[in-house]
Amino acid sequence: MIAQAVKMEDQIHQLAVGDDLEELTWGEPVQRVQALAEKGLQELPSVYIRALSDRPGLDDSLLPDETVPVIDFSGLQEDDRKQETMSDIAKACEEWGFFQLINHGIPLPLIAKTRRVAKQFFDLPIEEKQIYANKPWSLVGYGSRIGVTKGAVLDWGDYFLHYLWPIDKRDVDKEWPKKPASYIETLDEYSREVHKLCSRLMEVFSENLGLRTSYVGEVFGWPDMNLVLRINYYPPCPRPDLTLGVAAHSDGGGLTLLLQDDIGGLQVHKGDRWLSVDPIPNAIVINVADQLQILSNGKYKSVEHRVVVNNSFVRMSLATFCNPDIEAIISPALELIDDNHPSSYRKALYGEFLQSFFRDGLKGKRYIESFKA
Ligand SMILES: O=C(O)CCC(=O)C(=O)O
Ligand SMILES: [Fe+2]
After folding, report:
1. Strands 98-102, 284-288: pairing kind
2. Ligand 1 mutation target, pool 305, 316, 320, most atoms within 8 A of CB
3. Ligand 2 centre and the CA of 274: distance in Å?
4. Would you give the DSSP letter of residue 167?
């Protein structure tokens, strides 16, 4: 079952590159950014240097009048605050595509433990992490780039990626770290909590869109929606002004739940500016991803975001992507189409979407553009 499920994603990858997977190679030998940074480089190697127009411009971040909305999820449990909380979430999805969720219900000691085991993994010697090195045709494992294109500008960061859900798609034996010893147990517990929160959010989004409560969940395959964890590790960088931890992109799946630490660096695109998502201790940053934008017929926005790095601190984040199955067909909900709101996107297999992603890596909002009706 496991082998089969993962193999399907490999097949999509194969379609994307049109090549024999086993022969696919990285454009350049893989360099761990963490190892480079630990050498104490004075200069930034040229593969990380972005074009002038993509550089972060480190001083143009937040203006005080504009901040990503903060939503108190406990408001949904109180009769007098429920309506207001629902409409705050709807507004955030429509205007920002992003919000920070507090009182989300994931136990804080579990969050602390999850962060701790993630950090302990990255603190292992390189050789121990290399055991999980990902292949050019799969994002699963220990990685330092997305896409194989020779000469591509690379992100200043490493990651570790694996499935959290559905349970039969997790290959705990091969794909989850064995060290630290409590990693598996902790992430198992974390996945169950994230699954609960995602389920609740999908219900809220459905209701807010005027759809039956189970609608978004049905499209994304609840209770077996795909939850994929990406632990991001951004070491200090000698020239943060020239590079990015993650290039500008929108997330391709359904929705994303992100735990960032207290360092800061995530920015979202609003109007023609990049605004910082200031860390709030233990808040979870939620963002609408491309498939939810399509399902909502463009009412909800899957917004571009990027990560800037700094020259003093390691920053870590844990992103959980909640995605439809690759065989799911995604299209705007019929209830959201009328004479004034014609269908903005064509019907497509989520796998078709993934295929362009595997081929080209992160490319701003280019993918969703190509699915316009
Ligand atoms: O590290 C972050 O704050 C965001 C990472 C991100 O956007 C991603 O992994 O898709
Ligand atoms: Fe992202």
Report:
1. antiparallel
2. 305
3. 14
4. G
Has the ipTM of the complex gone over 0.90?
yes
Eight-state DSSP code of residue 338: B
* CA–centroid distance for 337 within its chain: 28
- Residue 245: other Cβ atoms inside 10 A: 24
Q: Which atom of ligand 1 is nearest to the CA of 319?
A: 9
Residues 6+ apart with CB under 8 A from 372: 344, 345, 346
Around ligand 1, the residues with Cβ closer than 6 Å are 230, 232, 246, 251, 258, 260, 266, 305, 307, 317, 319
Beta bridge partners of 141: 161
Tokens encoding 281:
């201790």
Tens of pLDDT along the chain (373 residues) come to 344 445 567 666 666 666 666 677 888 899 999 999 999 998 999 999 999 999 997 665 555 568 999 999 999 999 999 999 999 999 999 999 999 999 999 999 999 999 999 999 999 999 999 999 999 888 899 999 988 888 999 999 999 999 999 999 999 999 999 999 999 999 999 999 999 999 999 999 999 999 999 999 999 999 999 999 999 999 999 999 999 999 999 999 999 999 999 999 999 999 888 999 999 999 999 999 999 999 999 999 999 999 999 999 999 999 999 999 988 999 999 999 999 999 999 898 898 888 777 766 666 666 677 778 7
Burial class (CB in 10 A: 0-12, 13-18, 19+), 181: exposed
